Amino acid sequence: MLEDDVIQIQGLSVCTRIGVTEEEHLSPQHLLLDLQIQPQNSFSAQKSTQPLVDYSALAQRIRSLCAVGQWRLIETLAEEISNTLLLEFPVKRLTLRIRKFVLPHAEFVAIQTTRER
């Protein structure tokens, strides 16, 4: 498979309870997620009209996971999302970036992780 065979989702908006302090957990916080998804099969091997990865279902799975969970660290949230997507979708490799908007005088804080099946 070519490294160019990726599906990207940029700026997926989610709300979740996340943070170390009690104040951060009082109300859900807005996060933005960027994903680069390498399907298990290449684009050229695709023979049907079904998508290699149902990115709509994948995005909804992330949003529902974030809606019901609570995390102290965005690193832990990234691990949970990555593990869930690799288990439930035909994804070979996933790069996930999470942006959190909590620091004054900074546009955002972000973490990025890459996981493989």
Structural key phrases:
alpha+beta, five-stranded mixed β-sheet, GTP Cyclohydrolase I, domain 2, single chain, 117 residues
Structure in words:
There is one protein chain. With 117 residues, the protein is α+β, with helices and mostly antiparallel strands. It is built from three helices and five strands. A five-stranded mixed β-sheet has the order 3-1-2-4-5.
Q: What average pLDDT do the residues reach?
A: 91
Structural class: alpha+beta
**Shape descriptor:** elongated
Main sheet, how many strands, which sense, barrel? 5 strands, mixed
Number of domains: 1
Low-confidence stretches: none
The proportion of residues in beta strands is: 35-45%
